[in-house]
Amino acid sequence: MALHPALAQLLMPERRAVIFALKGVISMALALFVSMYLQLDRPYWALVSAVFLQIRPESGLVIEKAICQIVGSAAGGGVGILILAFLSGYPVLALGCLTVWIGLNSAAASMVHSINYIYAFAMAGMTAGLVVVLVMANASAADSQVVFAIAQARISEITVGAICAMLVSQLLWPVKVKDSLRAQARSAINDTLEYITVELDPDSSHEQRHKHADQILETLVAVNDDSSAVAYEGPEGPGRGRAASLLCNRILSLLAVTQIIGRFRRNHAELVSPAFAELLALMRRQLTQIAETDSYEEGYRLAQQLRRQLKQLRDQQEGEEAIVSRLSQTALEMVGDLVVVLRAYNALENRDQTLLNAPRLKTHRDPLVGAVNGLRTAAVFLIGAIVWVQTASQAAIMLMIMPVVFSVMFSRFSLVALSVILPRVLIGTMVSIPVALLFGLGLLSHSSGDFEMLVLVLAGPYFVGLLVLASRPTLPYGLGFCIPFTIITQPSNNMTFSADTAVSTALGLFVGISVLYWVFKLISPPDSQLLQRRLIHATARDLLDIDNHQHPENWFNGRMGERLLRIANFDQGTGTSDRYMTDLGFTGLNLGHVSIRLRRLIQSHRSASVNLRLREWQKALSKTYLKSSKGQFHPQFREASANLLRAIEEAAEPNQQTAIIEGMFERLALTFERTARTVARATGKPAPQAKRGQDAAAAPGR
User: Fold this and answer.
1) Where are the membrane-spanning stretches (predicted)?
2) What's the rounded Cα separation, in Å, for the pair 632 and 229?
3) If pLDDT is split at 50, 70 and 90, which confidence band does 124 have?
4) φ, ψ for residue 258 (rounded to 5)?
5) Most CB within 10 Å of its CB: which of 2, 167, 214, 601?
6) Please, what is the Cα angle at 449 between 446 and 453, to 5 degrees?
7) pLDDT surpasses 90 at 128
8) Cβ(382)–Cβ(374) below 8 Å
9) Per-residue pLDDT tens over the stretch 43-73
């Protein structure tokens, strides 16, 4: 499914970057004009607000980000007023409460994945800090009216910048989220089809399979993040958002089912019958054709054709092992999921009212990570506050505020990513200082100070900075340049052009971001192995909770999507080649789907005894998963499987479904034993030995 030529032209990096940079300059000029016309106290904060909205400046994302900025600023301003109302006479306590508030916002930001929601927490922390610190800087003249006026000014400046950027994004060369969403969805489908063909190839390598899986997970999380913003793009937006969520959900189902078949073929080739091998070969051929087509209609037709062919081959099978019968049905279910994925992709452009809704992928929230990030940001602010209290310097205010904003924004990134991002932000800041002092203020000091001259002088540096900001690899450089450049020049109605103030502000910014860099180095996130273990334990808990949800497959997929990406990212950061933790994550995804499918198979066999044995089996499944993740066997799983199978056979006459269930249990037992050996080998532990004497009696299908 090749990218449409018109869409490819639209997304050309060079053209896109120039358009975004030009729109950014216009939105910042408009924000500066409006804030100066309204005689706002510090118009440059409107520019700062507009700069943040140039990161991913598609229309829907800008609207969502603007709303988040305004709501976050209003919340922060309200908290700042409350702190001053009760603690204005106790500056140390006021700063302490402000530190706690900023730390809580940073912790909360690490619990969400969408960058737009993270901005809301960053603005809440920054606005509260500005209100409290600016009032305390001139405490002798402070009263309730002054406090409210400062809070109103900060909120107004942020709001003006956000609204101006939103208007420019909508009116000038609008680029829609739906276009990038459709391109990302097409990429996810193509990668998934390639992954399936690689997974079903017995000669494929472990590295090849993981490369495709990692790319799919990253794209799915990106699609999931954008699906909330597309709702702001007209009446069709909410429907497109639901279609994107359904697409992500079903692709995760495809990954789970594909791994079941692929692992079986690689690890138990002796059980692959000629008929089943023919079925797999047909799937590979047809899926390759679907991936190569550039038409949705043709791809959908081929998928439906494959579905009919697989059903025919399955019905023709005779005398197959129970596990092969089950996997033949699994292959048919996999193609059914593929059909739904293609329909969801089509619904991103054309309305499809017959599609069922699916929840968005949930962000994995780890309180331990939140606590570390909150502590780190609070430490950054506290260092700045101590410097400010000791020196009473106006420049120290920037040392307190801007590093906090960056700290909250970067709270969700891993240590590996931060080791790249923070140095680039620091380099951008170092470049912005001489440009702001020599070019910006140097030229403006000889001008008339009119708005036209301000725009003429500032447009060049901003255009270059926004051009750098428009590219993902260079984004930290652009962010590190544009924000400090704005704060050092401080364009407004009554610019003083004081060299001492400008140099002092520049020094405060540089020191503050340097402090941020070293605090992030010293207060690092928990060890990646520990976090991976916590992710595995969270998956095991979800396996126990599957029965408590009306639509368990959607619920489980939603919780596993971002969790799998985190596990994969941690694995990539360690540099190990075996990637056994990622394999464990995908095993957890498989187990959830198997458990859900088991409940469908035994729907007509349910009885009090079956329900009891099913609960015992589910507990054994979760516990065995945890044991295998530590390189250990848990013999009770085979016993629980045998007990459940007997209860099912007693509830109704054994039939083909009973044979499929028997094959399912056997496959799971083999998976757990193989996983335990793999983990033991990867961690250097003695290889566990199954107690064959005990297991043989309890092993179904042996």
Assistant:
1) 20-40, 81-104, 116-137, 149-173, 368-389, 395-418, 425-445, 451-470, 502-520
2) 45
3) very high
4) -60, -40
5) 214
6) 85
7) yes
8) no
9) 989 999 999 888 888 888 889 999 999 999 9
d(CA 288, CA 273): 23
Residues 397 and 133: beta-carbon distance below 8 Å = yes
Phi, psi values for residue 203, rounded to 5°? -95, 0
Give the position of tokens 């020599």: 438
pLDDT tens digit string along 663-691? 788 888 888 988 888 888 887 777 676 55
Residue 217 near residue 564 (C-beta atoms within 8 A): yes
CA distance 568 to 137: 47
- In this prediction, residue 699 carries a pLDDT of 34
Cα–Cα distances (Å) from 185 to 247, 369, 687, in that order, read: 8, 30, 42
Question: Six-digit token pair at 56?
Answer: 């991913």
Contact call for residues 345 and 3 (beta carbons, < 8 A): no
* Cα distance from N-terminal residue to C-terminal residue, the chain: 44
Query: Does pLDDT of 353 surpass 80?
Result: no
- Cβ-in-10-Å burial (0-12, 13-18, 19+) of 690 comes to middle
The helix/strand/coil state of 695 is: helix
Question: Helices 395-409 and 91-109, interaxial angle, to 10°?
Answer: 30
Residue keyed to tokens 């990570």: 369
SS (H, E, C) 471-519: CCCCHHHHHHHHHHHHHHHCCCCCCCCCHHHHHHHHHHHHHHHHHHHHH
Instruction: Locate 423 and state its tokens.
Output: 């140095």
Alpha helical stretches, state H, 575-688? 580-601, 608-629, 636-651, 656-683
Q: Tokens at residue 118, please? A: 């993270």
Question: Collapsing DSSP states into helix, strand and coil, what is residue 413?
Answer: coil
What gap in Å lies between CA 686 and CA 609, rounded to an integer? 39
Could you read off the pLDDT of 559-603 as tens digits, one per residue? 888 888 888 877 776 666 667 888 888 889 889 988 988 888 888
Q: What is the pTM of this model?
A: 0.82
Residue 357, CA distances (Å) to 230, 249, 596 in order = 16, 10, 18
Nearest to 594 by CA among 631, 624, 627, 629: 624
